[in-house]
Specification:
The structure is a single chain. The protein has 418 residues and is an alpha+beta fold. A 4-stranded antiparallel β-sheet has the order 2-3-1-4. The longest helix is centred in the middle third of the chain and has 59 residues. The chain starts with 12 loop residues before the first helix and ends with a helix.
């Protein structure tokens, strides 16, 4: 209370009442205006237009760019299971074989050259790795279906996908997503890459595929060895049969003609003919001397008889050698043919025996080996999926599609306005 007490001016009371009433009316008017403003803000459509002007996001952009990118990011960052990659490098060739050149492999790849044996052998293993036989082996020995359908795998990476069945063909098609193999024509080394959702599964599948490829190479080696040995043995059997036939024919000839060697018999006959002719010449010389010294000698008829007998004997021996069907000349021809056949058969048998030894050496020289240059590794970190890279690629692709669609819509609007 003031020292002097309260002092009211009664004349001023009406003015104060008027000012208070005026102030209360002003407050009420302002409160009413604010309620109307808030009411206009809640139901006025221009509010959304101002909001859109401040944040200009077009529905087309949201559908073509934002939505796919958000879904992709949600999948790769939250749902996608890690993928482990096991790499292995192997080489298929013989011990004495060198790696093919890059130019040769390039010509083979475009169909302008013939593949060398090393390239062909490497492609054989590659075809096995990507074949249904490999899937059967993995399914039989390592439960491939169970490895690819673990519950921890996301629904897109897991087998079967929502759009796949459980048949063997579906398993094979899914298997091809997890295995790749390639051949380097410059070094001759093939690279096997196995994708799995567990590091030990990836290494195990890679080792199993290399084991299957090695079994295939061994089967090829065994078949080639068996074919080579069979051919060599068949040649030996054929040569032995020809030798037996030639020996039998020669023995039959000797028994029929009662001669061991007609050639030697003919030589003996020729020697006898020569001796008889020598005796004839000697007697003719003696007769000439006797006739010259004693033309009337009684020894001349005796010498003439001896000369005639020796000449007759000489003709008989000559006929035994040649000139008749029963002479030695035809026998010598047949005998020489038989001996040539026998010698040729014996040489064939010797050559066939040598071919067996050569085939064995050639088999060892051409035997194929699958060498594991780099064995399959057990990855300690997931290499896939590349999450940020995939999200960025999806965003850029959708952005490109959005730009193309926007240009098409703008062109249509401009055409419609014209």
């Amino acid at each position: 209370m003031p020292p002097g007490g309260w002092n009211f001016d009664c004349a001023a009371l009406p003015c104060i009442a008027i000012e208070a009433s005026t102030l209360r009316g002003s407050v009420l008017i302002r409160f009413t205006e604010q309620q109307e403003r808030h009411s206009d803000l809640s139901f006025d459509p221009s509010f959304f237009q101002r909001l859109r002007a401040r944040f200009p996001v077009q529905p087309l952009f949201a559908v073509l760019v934002l939505l796919p990118t958000v879904l992709t990011a949600f999948y790769y960052l939250i749902i996608a299971a890690p993928i482990y990659v096991s790499d292995a490098k192997f080489l298929v060739r013989t011990p004495s074989q060198s790696a093919p050149g890059a130019f040769d492999s390039l010509l083979v790849g475009v169909g302008l050259g013939s593949a060398s044996s090393s390239v062909t052998d490497a492609y054989v293993v590659e075809e096995y790795v990507t074949s249904r036989d490999a899937v059967r082996d993995l399914e039989k020995n390592h439960d491939l279906r169970g490895i690819l359908s673990k519950p921890s795998i996301d629904f897109i990476g897991r087998y079967p996908r929502p759009t796949e069945g459980r048949s063997f063909e579906d398993l094979y098609q899914a298997y091809r997503r997890y295995v790749t193999v390639g051949y380097d024509g410059q070094t001759g080394i093939s690279t096997l890459r196995v994708y799995a959702f567990d590091p030990h599964d990836a290494a195990m599948l890679a080792n199993a595929l290399l084991d299957g490829g090695e079994r295939l190479i061994n089967r090829l080696n065994d078949r080639a060895d068996a074919d080579a040995v069979a051919n060599a043995n068949r040649h030996i059997l054929d040569a032995e049969a020809r030798v037996e036939q030639s020996e039998a024919a020669l023995t039959s000839f000797r028994n029929r003609e009662r001669l061991i060697d007609p050639t030697r018999s003919s030589l003996a006959g020729l020697d006898l003919v020569g001796k008889l002719e020598g005796q004839v010449v000697t007697l003719q010389a003696q007769r000439a001397a006797l006739a010259a010294s004693a033309p009337e000698s009684p020894q001349l008829p005796i010498v003439d008889q001896q000369i005639q007998a020796l000449q007759a004997q000489t003709e008989i021996q000559r006929s035994k050698i040649a000139g008749q069907d029963t002479s030695l000349a035809p026998m010598i021809g047949e005998y020489e043919r038989l001996t040539i056949d026998r010698d040729f058969a014996a040489k064939e048998l010797t050559a066939a025996s040598a071919a067996v030894e050569s085939a064995e050496l050639d088999m060892r020289r051409k035997r194929l080996y699958l060498e594991r240059v780099v064995p399959p590794n057990i990855p300690d970190a997931a290499r896939m999926p590349r999450r940020m890279y995939s999200i960025g690629m999806v965003f850029l692709s959708c952005l490109l599609i959005y730009g193309i669609v926007s240009l098409i819509i703008a062109g249509l609007r401009e055409h419609t306005q014209q």
